[in-house]
Design goal:
By secondary structure, the protein is of the alpha+beta class. It has 14 helices and 22 strands. It folds into three domains: 44 residues, no CATH class; 279 residues, SGNH hydrolase (Rossmann fold, 3-Layer(aba) Sandwich), CATH 3.40.50.1110; 152 residues, Jelly Rolls. The radius of gyration is 26 Å and the shape is globular.
Length: 487
């Protein structure tokens, strides 16, 4: 073929594609099977792409300037300068680095009762509890772990907190937990062909039971076990605990409960049949890091959680609920939930949901706002005196042709979550803003090293630590402001 004809061929193809781009619908063409055919349009050709990026290095550099000592200084509104241990900086500039907690009607005293208890812990000797509920964004203790470390370092306490008898997903960052394969886990929001006749899911929104070996001739000695040991990746305060509490109940037959520290039997007890919540408790003279718990019997109890804590200070629980939108608390047996919260002495709920709502794009989220508000109100009703801190949804991206763009409904969902928090009398922290705002997720993914994964939804361990530190900084800033009042 002659060069001129080859040239004409390419020009013709280009003109056909260009003409197609001019008339191709911007939203694509819907095909059967929920398939959408997309093509470059005139809008793509003639409109410059939004290439705005978040300066991640600036965020990291700013966060490195902050620590408890610096935050204690800038919490004083009259402070003009703050010593960062490297150089003196304008206090107003440092305050702007902290994405501050917001309050309904700007009532910054909302968390004061909690702060008062934290301040008095050395005298009271209490163990107070913070429960961090969330979706898959907080799995494997990724965000909670650093918050726990900072709070326990500041106010005392140790241990991993409340955990289930068996995890659905790998869990080894803060503690290594292993269990026998005959544990069956039930989730409050899981769809099942055989619905349970009750709603006793407890504070973890799940419970575990032992499955008896029906093939065995004698099922009276069915054995289930749970083993805890130190993780090489965990913070020092998580490695040890001074008490163990098993929250269980509703067993139709007696069972034997044994506990081993290291390889030695520490204690054993026969637990009679029960139709209510029971707390089996052990206190250790010395901090313990390795524990084995065994259940023996023909009909084990429903196990709602195992708390590995200190006897005083702060306990912080990591409660990830993959795929959950946070609308579960009204669906759990209310009396059981109330009893567990009271026994655990819960003083703060951190709720971090909404990410699973994002893929369902709508113009309004009025119903979600209403439902979320009802969950917060129910928690406050079940646990009088406890505060609630709601965390907004992180920036998330969806692929559009050759690039990742922010979900168009993110701002509406965060607005609904914030409105729900304020209507229910809860505090709110804007994670989306802390990340850098709209379209910040691509910058987190492309950071070196990455702060978010290539699904453009979840944080990497490094990114999770950054989020945790920013949230902790916002919290401790409010605490130091409270201290400045002299109350």
């Amino acid at each position: 073929m002659k060069p001129f004809r080859i040239f004409l061929f390419f020009v013709s193809v280009f003109l056909i594609l260009f003409a197609g781009a001019l008339y191709f619908p911007e939203k694509g063409i819907k095909l059967p099977g929920n398939i959408v055919l997309k093509f470059y349009t005139a809008h793509d050709i003639f409109t410059s792409k939004d290439t705005s990026v978040v300066n991640i290095q600036e965020i990291l550099k700013n966060q490195a300037l902050l620590n408890d000592s610096v935050i204690a200084v800038i919490a004083d509104k009259k402070a003009n300068l703050a010593d960062t241990a490297r150089f003196i900086i304008n206090a107003d500039s440092l305050r702007k680095i902290i994405i501050q907690i917001e309050y309904p009607e700007k009532d910054s005293t909302l968390l004061y009762p909690l702060f008062k208890m934290l301040k008095e812990l050395p005298k009271s000797g209490q163990l107070i509890r913070i429960m961090h509920y969330g979706d898959s964004q907080i799995e494997d203790d990724r965000i909670t772990s650093l918050i726990r470390y900072n709070l326990q370092h500041k106010f005392g306490g140790s241990g991993i907190g409340l955990v289930p008898a068996s995890h659905l997903y790998p869990f080894a960052f803060s503690i290594i937990q292993e269990s026998s394969e005959n544990w069956e886990r039930n989730l409050v929001y899981a769809k099942t062909d055989n619905p349970l006749p009750h709603k006793r899911f407890g504070a973890l929104a799940s419970f575990c039971t032992l499955k008896a070996d029906q093939s065995a001739q004698d099922t009276s000695n069915s054995l289930g076990w749970i083993k805890f040991s130190k993780s090489p990746y965990s913070y020092s305060n998580t490695k040890y605990f001074k008490q163990c509490r098993i929250f269980c109940g509703y067993n139709t037959e007696p069972f034997v409960n044994e506990i081993y520290t290291g390889s030695e039997l520490y204690d054993a007890e026969i637990i009679p049949p029960s139709g209510k919540l029971k707390v089996i408790k052990w206190m250790f003279n010395e901090p313990v890091s390795d524990l084995l718990i065994q259940f023996k019997g023909s009909a084990g109890p429903e196990v709602y959680g195992i708390a590995l804590d200190n006897t005083s200070g702060v306990a912080v629980d990591n409660i990830p609920l993959r795929g959950c939108a946070g609308l579960i608390f009204t669906s759990i047996d209310q009396q059981l939930l109330r009893e567990m919260y009271k026994e655990l002495n819960v003083k703060l709920f951190i709720l971090q949901f909404g990410g699973n709502v994002v893929p369902y794009i709508a113009e309004k989220y009025t119903n979600y706002e209403k439902w979320y508000c009802s969950q917060i109100e129910r928690l406050k009703e079940l646990c009088p005196g406890a505060a609630v801190l709601v965390v907004g949804v992180a920036d998330m991206s969806i692929k559009e042709k050759d690039r990742f763009v922010p979900y168009p409904n993110l701002e509406n969902i965060n607005r609904a979550i914030k409105n729900a928090a304020f209507k229910a009398g809860a505090a709110y922290w804007d994670l989306h803003k802390a990340m850098g705002g709209k379209n910040s997720m691509p910058s987190w993914v492309k950071a070196n090293p990455p702060l978010a994964t290539t699904d453009y939804v979840h944080f990497t361990p490094r990114g999770s630590k950054l989020v945790a530190q920013m949230l902790y900084n916002a919290f401790i800033y409010e605490y130091f402001r409270y201290e400045r009042t002299g109350k």
